[in-house]
Amino acid sequence: MGSWGCSHLTDKKCDLLKKECSPGEKGCVLYGKAKFANSAENEVYEKRVKAKDSEK
Ligand code: SF4
C-alpha cells in the first residue's frame, strides 16, 4: 500500500482553500477524483465514474 501527501498541505491547513484540510471537498485537488471511506464527497466521484463508463 502506498501513501500520498498533498503538496498544498502546510501545517494541517490547505493553501488552496485557506482553511483546514478537508480532502475531497469542492476546490480540493481530489474533488471528484478519489473515493473516500466515509464522505459525502463520494457523490461527485460516483458521477464522474458513471460519466466515464458511458463514454466507453
Ligand atoms: S483540502 Fe485537498 S488540496 Fe487542500 S491540502 Fe487537503 S488534500 Fe490538499
What would you note in describing this structure?
By secondary structure, this protein is an alpha+beta fold. The protein has one domain. The chain has one helix at 42-55, and strands spanning 9-10, 13-14, 19-20. Strands 1-2-3 form a three-stranded antiparallel beta sheet, with no helix packed on it. Strand 1 and strand 2 form a beta hairpin. The mean pLDDT is 87. Bound molecules: iron/sulfur cluster.
* Straight-line distance between termini: 29 Å
Whole-angstrom Rg: 13 Å
In percent, how much strand structure appears in the residues? 5-15%
Query: What best-fitting shape do the alpha-carbon axes yield?
Result: elongated
The neighbouring-strand order within the major sheet is 1-2-3
Whole-number count of domains: 1
Mean pLDDT: 87
Number of strands: 3
Features:
56 residues; alpha+beta; elongated
Quick summary:
Strands 1-2-3 form a three-stranded antiparallel sheet, with no helix packed on it. The chain is built from one helix and three strands, in the order βββα.
Write the layout of secondary structure elements.
Layout: E1 9-10, E2 13-14, E3 19-20, H1 42-55
Antiparallel strand pairs: 1-2, 2-3
The site of iron/sulfur cluster has 12 residues, from loops.
